[in-house]
Amino acid sequence: MKLEALPVYRIPARNTDPDSENPIHGDAVAARHGFAAGLIPGVSVYGYMTVPLIRQLGRDWLERGWMRIRFRKPFYDGDELFARAVAVEGDAMQVTAMAEGEVRVSAEAGLDDPPAAWPLEDFPAHPLPDPRPTASKATLYANLVLGTVREHPAAEHARLVGSLADPLPFYRGPAAVVHPTVLLGLANVLLMRNFVLPPWLHASSELRNFAAPGVEETLEVRGRIREVFARKGNEFLTVDAVVLTRDGKPVQQVRHTAIWSIGKK
C-alpha cells in the first residue's frame, strides 16, 4: 500500500473557549487537574484538522464524508499545530495533529464509507429538562433520551471562523456553510443543555456528514446516551446524536465519547 503525504497545514493553535461553561478550558481548573493550562476544545482541534483533509477531498467531504477521531493529548493556546492528511488508498485518509514532534490527535477519514446511517425513528424529539440535573451515574441512566436542542448557528459560526483563522472559502460570503467545528460542537451543546457537568474532556468522535447547511439554517440536535462506563479511574459516557435541518433532513450523525468525571492523578 502506497502512502502519499500531502502538504502540512501549520498554524498557532488558539483556545477558542477560555470562558466556556466547561471550566477545563480555563487555566485555573485545568491546573487543578494536572494540565499545563486551559485545554483547547477538541472540536477546535478537529476544525484545524479538517483544513488539509478538505484541501484533498474538497467540499464533498462536508456533504458526504466521515471521520473517526481520537484525542490523545491536549493542545494549549499558542502551541504550533501541524495538521497532516495522508492519502492511504482511494479516498481514505489518515489525519494527525502534532505539536513539539508528537502526535496528539489522530483520525481516519474518507468519503461514502461507514458508519452506516442510523434510523431517525430511533431519535425522537424530547423536551429539555428543567431544571437540568447534575450529572451522576443515576441521572445519566435516568435520562437516556436527551432533550432536543434547536440552534441558529450564524453567530457561533462567525466567531469560530475568525478564531480558527480557517483559510478555506466555503465558510464566508452569502453562500457560506456551517463550519465543521460548529457542527461537531453541537454534540457538546446537547450534553450541556441536558446536564450540569463537572469539568469534562472530549475523548473521541465517530461522525458522518450528510449535508453542508447554510449558516442561516436552524438546526435541531437529538440524541441518546449509548453507554456509561469507567476506565483507568475516569468516568466516560458515549452519546449518539443526530443533527437535522428544520424540515428534518439529516446533516450529521456523531457517536461522541467524553470523560464526564475526571479521575484523580
- For the record, the CATH class is Alpha Beta
Indicate the CATH architecture: Roll
How many beta strands in the DSSP annotation?
11
Strand content: 25-35%
Q: Distance between termini?
A: 41 Å
Principal-axis shape = globular
Structural class by secondary-structure content: alpha+beta
Structure described in brief:
This protein has 6 helices and 11 strands. It is of the alpha+beta class and 265 residues long.
Can you tag this structure with a few keywords?
265 residues; alpha+beta; Thiol Ester Dehydrase, Chain A; 11-stranded antiparallel beta sheet; 6 helices; 11 strands
Provide structural commentary.
This protein is α+β, with helices and mostly antiparallel strands. The chain has a single domain (4-112, 120-261), classed as Thiol Ester Dehydrase, Chain A (Roll). It is built from 6 helices and 11 strands. It has helices at residues 27-32, 42-57, 60-64, 137-142, 154-164, 180-194, and strands at 4-5, 9-12, 65-71, 80-89, 92-99, 102-111, 149-151, 201-209, 219-231, 234-245, 250-261. Strands 1, 2, 3, 4, 5, 6, 7, 8, 9, 10 and 11 form an 11-stranded antiparallel sheet that branches. The longest helix is centred in the N-terminal third of the chain and has 16 residues, at 42-57. It starts with a strand and ends with a strand.
